[in-house]
Fold this sequence. Notes:
By secondary structure, the chain is an alpha+beta fold.
Amino acid sequence: xxxxxxxxxxxxxxxxxASFSYEKWRQRxxxxxxxxxxxxxxxxxxxxxxxxxxxxxxxxxxAYGILLLVTFTRLPYWLKASVFLFLIYAxxxxxxxxxxxxxxxxxxxxxxxxxxxxxxxxxxTLISGIICLVSIGITGWLVLxxxxxxxxxxxxxxxxxxWISGTVSxxxxxxxxxxxxxxxxxxxxxxxKSTREYLTELIDQRSSLEKRVEERTAxxxxxxxKNLERANQLRTIAEISRSFTVVxxxxxxxPEIARKINEAFGxxxxxxxxxxxxxxxxxxxxxxxxxxxxxLERGHRLRIGQxxxxxxxxxxxxxxxxxxxxxxxxxxxxxxxxxxxxxxALPLQSGGKIxxxxxxxxVARAAxxxxxxxxxxxxxxQISIAIQNARLFExxxxxxxxxxxxxxxxxxxxxxEIARRGALGFRYANGHVETxxxxxSSPQMTGRDSGILSIPINIRGETLGMLNIRQPGRQQAWxxxxxxxxxxxxxxxxxxxxxxxxLEDTLNRVAREQKIVEISTKIGSSVRIEQILxxxxxxxxxxxEGADVLLQLQPGTSKDSTQ
Length: 563
């Protein structure tokens, strides 16, 4: 939208007032009138060729020559206009001398008065009217008193009323035209002034609008740059967070996080603190800087809620920025990080509990802002999740190892119990199967060169026995295909054996539970104490196949005593 506005109103294009100028219009008007007068004057001069009065003829030729001079030569405007008006007045005066009040003198005087207003000003109309009135008045007085006679004798001199009426009719129209011109010029001046005022206001508004557009454009560009920077930071955080999922071990995860943050943001120091088990100290667990590695070697830690910005953050759970560490009272002056000028620490929280802090430091003053807290706060949340996931992974692995160990002992105990029942060895030879008791000292595996293939029987990681295959007369070793075949058979057999053991254990457990229910039912059906004790002893003896059972009550006997 801004670019479109710039195309419509280019910055280098300034508003200008209308090109109309009253002075220029007068100059063009005068030039047109002079050209018209030169053409019309030629006809007038040619008409005087038959004039018998040589003086009049010379006067017309001189006047036309002057007219041509001012028309076709470069002269100042005022001089051209003055000469032209003088020629009009002169022609009128000549007509007044020739014919008195009767002929064309009034027409030229009327033109003289009108053109004075058009070419100069309304005041010039007044001055020219006075000149014409004085000229007519003097001439009329001379003619009426007999002191002057018009050169054309056939024209009557007229009386006083004729001269007055002719003069009034001649003066009336110039007065109307002059008033109209004065009103027009005044209105034109006011309009021009208003136009300039409006134009000035419009220019000011346009300048203000352009300034606002520039400010908005600058704001938009700045906002766009911030958005791009924030998008890059968020993309970087997402990339760093994805790398967390690869590492599961906490001791490997924390240094990897510090390294990734340093590569992405270029901080002088990145430190990751975790609270100890007693929540007394925040212990440095990973760092990227040389000074941070020294701190790791000596087991650097800060008391929670008391020492340094990290102590403040881990104690309150609130992010903290030190724009100038020299002016921040909570800053911990660390000799291993001498170039630190500003610091920011963010809490690491999991499940509403503070588990540590992310500490970043810069060599520039005021390097961090509140926006950095928002952006890096997201990273701190991802780090907290990664730490918690790593801890859960370690706890799950430990629990799984315990379960696996317990199950392994259970499997081993069960097979040992089964082995105590009797011989678990079988031999197939000469077309029939026979049992035997394997000796502990017998070999468990024999090389292939002897013609015997030995495959261990493994169940849940425990070796429970061995499958030995001997082919009489065989000299060559067992090949890989044969070995894989028998190995697959042994694996299927191992699964079947384990399933049979589990089924047997389940059936035994069901039988025991059923026996317990039966004994409980019989005991529960008795209401006398002696009968309950007798029933319990009988059922227990019957369960253990005639075992001797001694059951007696001894009130007051200590809990630790046994019978």
